[in-house]
Queue: 2 jobs
Job 1
Amino acid sequence: MNTHQPTLVLNGTGKIGRRVVERLTLRGLPVRIGSRSSEPRFDWEDRSTWVPVLEGVGSAYISHHFDAIPGAAETLGSFAELAVKSGVPRLVLMSGRGEQEVERAERAVRHSGAELTVLHSTWFAQNFSESYWQEMVQAGEVALPAADTPEPFVDADNIADVAVAALIDDRHIGQIYELTGPRLLTFTEAVAEISRAVGREIRYLPISIEDFAATAAEQGVPNEVIEMLSYIFGEVLDGRNAHLANGVQRALGREPRDFRDYARDAAATGIWNPRATRVA
Ligand SMILES: NC(=O)c1ccc[n+]([C@@H]2O[C@H](COP(=O)([O-])OP(=O)(O)OC[C@H]3O[C@@H](n4cnc5c(N)ncnc54)[C@H](OP(=O)(O)O)[C@@H]3O)[C@@H](O)[C@H]2O)c1
């Protein structure tokens, strides 16, 4: 890897991207964040922002903000093609698992001729602490339309470690890593782990997609996010991903982090402490 040219990290302010940025920075490697709030600004929906972020970079971590929406595959493919044409052949693509649009995206990005590493990830454990599920945990009830399908929740730190390994070591070129945690957990079991870690009752309540969408809208969750999550809960969470994979072990040579360890460490930060009620 060229250590003088920056690595472009798309979604560089998100759950995985910011961890990738932290890790590269700790290694003393230059980084350029690509997001709507970065400078130069990057927006998937505004192609005029694509060329400036690619200027002078040596490699790129690419991830669409909603990789399962129709059209994301073409968008990712076009970006990869531009990257390769701009002299950035080394790409690490991070996306979901078991979704048609994600498979199309992988093919489109591969078509660019990039030196590619692909990461397919299952649900992040950090959805419970770094997205709006966190507020449900704080309130003591996690109501989601997930029935009780088992999922091998994976730790965001593991995903970022794999992404960084792939960015800095050419031995990962051509690899496809399917990233999961070390065990399958139903949502009831995952929330029970969190409950144990915080030392108070937090329960999982399976609800319908319609109730989920209505409550999320009341809480101000943007429409596009609700639609996306409704699709994922309604279609992708049907048990197709209820199996473990060994991507973390293959890429890093160690076991993935268990959900229990994630829950213990997240609880220790106080992120799930009940919100103080305001005295008038
Ligand atoms: N969460 C999961 O469990 C999970 C599992 C597997 C795969 N995935 C996939 O992984 C990807 C990232 O998910 P995440 O949960 O890590 O996201 P996240 O934490 O919500 O972060 C989203 C990132 O996208 C950026 N962004 C939003 N809209 C953008 C736009 N129009 N143009 C450019 N950047 C934009 C945001 O920065 P700004 O707001 O600054 O633009 C932010 O950096 C998604 O494709 C998701 O489907 C997620």
Job 2
Amino acid sequence: MLIKDTAICIRAVDFSETSQIVTFFARAAGKISAIAKGSKRPKSAFDGPIEIFSYGKIVFSDSNKEKLATLTEFESAYGGAGFTSLSNNLSALNSCLFAAELLNNLTHDHDPHPQLFDDFLQFLQNAQEGNKKTEMLALLILFQLSLLKEVGLRPVLNACANCKTKYEGRKTRDEIYFSSSANGLVCRDCEASFPDKLRLTKRAANCLANLKLIAESQEKTLIEIETVLVHHFTELLGRKPKMAKYVLNLSP
Ligand SMILES: [Zn+2]
């Protein structure tokens, strides 16, 4: 059966002299790995090799979900331009590669997440337009939080994840922590039970409790939040994401 979908390439590796294995995040079908036979030939059904962040319409045959699908067509949106200009901006490119790595690792094959697809597409579009490092960090943090939400791992950020005391109304001297094992913020009364916790500055805690503040935050605060998120993704995946070090090196 041939299936049509709208998709973004999140991984592309050479399979042979002429073919590639590509992973697409498709809007209706979810994550799909497929062989693109002949995609590296000068004339193919794919307008040349498929690159990461290629975006457009795909057609694939998928008779057996245990095996690789076969990509039969790829038609790029935007007249073939896609998100190729990302490669002109290293901080944007690294942030997008990091987002794609996390998306690939936190979603399952054939598990549709249309909202996450839309969020990822918007993230790539914003990344292509934005150029300041602080903007990129803010965009990345917001995408990472929407990724966690969409895959069912939304962290508790408006209250202590353990005792449920609301974050709002806390006295300024209160210490706030983030714990990966608690999946969210942890208050001073509870932090002793969570050895993996990281202490947050007041600014970072305020941003996490009120995500609207992220867009106007200073780079220092964003780096602190991203460091906490990298720690959290490392705990979730059982290893440090490969792209993490490139993104945290964004700071001067
Ligand atoms: Zn608590």
